[in-house]
Design a protein that fits this description.
The protein is α/β, with parallel strands linked by helices and 205 residues long. The protein has eight helices and five strands, in the order αββαβααββαααα. The protein has a single domain, classed as Ribonuclease H-like superfamily/Ribonuclease H (Nucleotidyltransferase, domain 5). Helices cover 41% and strands 15% of the residues.
Length: 205
């Protein structure tokens, strides 16, 4: 497993940027549920939290424990959640951008500069952004943001599983697994499903 570093953050801290924010999203490719972005700002010259990595590479218990540590150590953290209604109305691309902006807006203080996994955030000054290729793998702030977002969204999907137990949301978290596809075929689509993802095709598999 590749573990991220604070190299990018340290470079920016040395340039006078105090509030360096990492941003990442989860749930972009899901069939159901919201898209969620996380935002994390660590204190300048902080120590790297042991075990922080891209959330996709961690087990659920690892993510949950790390999320607690990240929230304790971070200067500021926040999430931005965009609903299925907005995803269907705007498209997943614009909805993801909204989630990024909402996560930043929900921070107690505005960041001086923002690091994002692969993307630039539209409608924000690019001068104070950096799109980082493989950011969730190499950049600690972005990895931490992915963990915060993933733990938040997974908890939400587990709670929705109680309302729709036949779909298995607690297991697949809304992703398009074979189990989920079979549930759609058997039980149809719910208000949680992204109609814009052409899921009706699974009704006739």
């Amino acid at each position: 497993m590749i573990f991220p570093t604070l190299d990018l953050e340290r470079k920016l801290w040395s340039q006078g940027y105090r509030l360096v924010c990492g941003i990442d999203e989860v749930g972009r490719g899901c069939f159901a549920g919201p898209v969620v972005a996380g935002a994390v700002i660590f204190a300048p010259n902080c120590e790297l939290i042991d075990g922080v990595a891209d959330s996709k590479l961690l087990k659920p218990r690892q993510r949950e424990k790390l999320a607690v540590k990240i929230k304790d150590q971070a200067l500021f953290w926040a999430v931005g959640e965009i609903s299925v209604t907005h995803i269907d109305k705007l498209g997943i691309g614009k909805a993801t951008q909204m989630a990024f902006r909402k996560a930043i807006k929900n921070l107690a203080k505005n960041p001086d500069v923002t690091l994002i996994d692969a993307f630039y955030i539209k409608h924000l000054n690019r001068k104070y952004q950096k799109a980082v290729k493989d950011g969730d793998t190499i950049c600690a702030s972005i990895s931490a943001a992915s963990i915060i977002a993933k733990v938040y969204r997974d908890k939400l999907m587990r709670s929705l599983d109680e309302k729709y137990p036949e779909y298995g949301f607690a297991k697949h978290k809304g992703y398009g697994t074979k189990l989920h596809q079979e549930a759609i075929k058997k039980y149809g689509l719910t208000r949680l499903h992204r109609k814009s993802f052409n899921l009706a095709k699974f009704l006739t598999i």
